[in-house]
């Protein structure tokens, strides 16, 4: 494995570690548990599951990995705060969407060559990217890894109150 | 900047983004605010500040960047849970330790060549590293970035209750 491949593999491992932790947490929770808030008056785990699914779904077109699977999750889980609407999706469906989105991402990541990670993503223009090459796909992956870890830290607070 | 350098720079940016966020949060909090819990009965921000400082301090020898600055923080902030002892360090000192440790890390990171990130760290033996080259310094940096983001997600919960 050359430098580029090892570097890309190490970054992907870090994404997988955080996702595996979340996966294990969600699997340990009943649909009723998903209704728990991470702290009094704050987001429910249900909302964070939808939020993370929507954010990860948006990575598909952003990283040129295909069409989105669940654009309908943006309005309730990205644009709106928790409890702005009656729950739009049953917990079972939300769990399926979460698995499908992360599965499609994993398949897409497996098709990328190491050097692809330093290429442009769709949220930056070709002109801007020429000036700012650090706004690459790897930066997006690492940012979403930190984002997933951020909410993971919140979710465990509810978990230990089960 | 060549491929290797851009890869390393992108990973370092992700560390810096998470640290800058924490830095801004800690700066916005008074010493009294640090006594707030992230959720009822859970860790105080004071404890998480000490915990993050101890974890980052351990990176210095682990990544061959020099001696530790604050090994005395391990017992109260890593080995023991919050409130196991009377607070061992005043908030002002803890803030200084946090800045000094992250400052020394930033200086150390600046001395590393891009390819150094794929080298062995001190928590893995040379024999194990020969078999498992993904247990490199980059993996440690990304793991600590996720760790900092994890606790950052908890700290903001207390912040918004200010």
The DSSP helix count of chain A reads 7
Q: Which sheet architecture does the biggest sheet of chain A show?
A: none
Residue stretches of chain A low in confidence (pLDDT < 50, at least 5 long) are none
End-to-end distance of chain A: 44 Å
The mean pLDDT of chain A is 95
Strand segment tally of chain A = 0
The percentage helix of chain A is: 55-70%
Gyration radius of chain A, rounded = 17 Å
Binned strand content of chain A = under 5%
List strands and helices in order, with pairings:
Two copies of one chain form a homodimer.
Chain A: H1 3-28, H2 45-57, H3 59-62, H4 74-79, H5 91-111, H6 126-131, H7 137-159
Helix pairs in contact in A: 1-7, 2-5, 2-7
Describe this structure in words.
The structure is a homodimer. By secondary structure, chain A is mainly alpha-helical. Chain A is built from seven helices and no strands. In chain A, helix 2 runs parallel beside helix 5. Chain A is globular and about 45 Å long. In chain A, about 40% of the residues are buried. The mean pLDDT of chain A is about 95.
